Amino acid sequence: MRRIKLRHLDTLAAFMKTGSVTEAALVLHTTQPNASKSLKQLEDFAGVKLFERSAGRLRPTPEAELLFAHAARLMDELTVFENLSLDLTAMTQGYVNIGILSAFSTALIPMAVERFNNLYPGIQVQVDLLDSDKIHSYVSRGNYDFGLVHHPEHESDLMTQTLKTSSMVCIMPPDHMLAKHRIILASDIADQPFVTYPRSVPFGAAIFRSLSDEGVRPSNYLISNQSQLIRRLVERGRGVALVDHFSVWDANEFDHIAVRQFEPRIPVSVGMIIPKRRPLSLAAQTFVGTLKEVLEQGPG
After folding, report:
1. CATH number at residue 231
2. Both 56 and 204 in a single domain?
3. Torsion-angle region of residue 19: left (phi > 0), alpha (psi -120 to 50) or beta?
4. Is there a contact between 264 and 187 (Cβ–Cβ < 8 Å)?
5. pLDDT digits (tens, 9 = 90+) for 217-268
6. What's the farthest any 2 CA atoms get from each other in the chain?
7. DSSP character string of 27-49
């Protein structure tokens, strides 16, 4: 089976636009004999006569005009392909799709997206908030470039990596009586209004288990399964809370909350899962690098 080559398209375009062997040779950056030879090879390939000589010029036949109409579209597509390849390499086009837990949407991911978008404004970033099971399922199918969870599950079609390990922290309004302490103990929050996760989610279960082990049983508390809402309730003076450190990664002394170390330590991690069936794109690799920079830089 004969296959068209790029030089065939270049030859056809050169003769169609110039109607002259001499001028076509200049366009093709070759000699006149080579240009004539290329035209002969093109006609042999096409199997029809493409040009008639008239008054010293080469006039295209109807067959040549039909072939050139298709060739022009092919060459336009090749130009798009070449430009897109350059844009992808230069990171001026592309996309990153991520599935994450809501805890990472409060501070960590907005910080990473802001830094990444400042450097690569042409890259589209889509972030979807899902539960851990859906993140594992959708990433394994290739619906996302990667996912962020707390505890990556080892599955045959996923690669996992722990990006950072930290711990639960205690947050409170800056003028709260406990804000003067560097470390908050379980006993310190025994009589405080408390905002926390429900026992039905892993964080909530870990918190209540840790407090119970220390003999603390909160009685006056508000419950939410969203770190962002817990943070907002604390900002509004509804109590103190134990939250995933990554959900207040952007907190500093100018915010409406104070962040303090909590003991006994309750570890939390940022885990990344990647589908084995598809390697990360250049844009996704760069975003992961930006995320790691934000994590290494530390909170605040």
Report:
1. 3.40.190.10
2. no
3. left
4. no
5. 887 889 998 888 999 999 999 999 999 999 999 887 567 899 999 999 999 9
6. 105
7. HHTS-HHHHHHHHHHHHHHHTS-
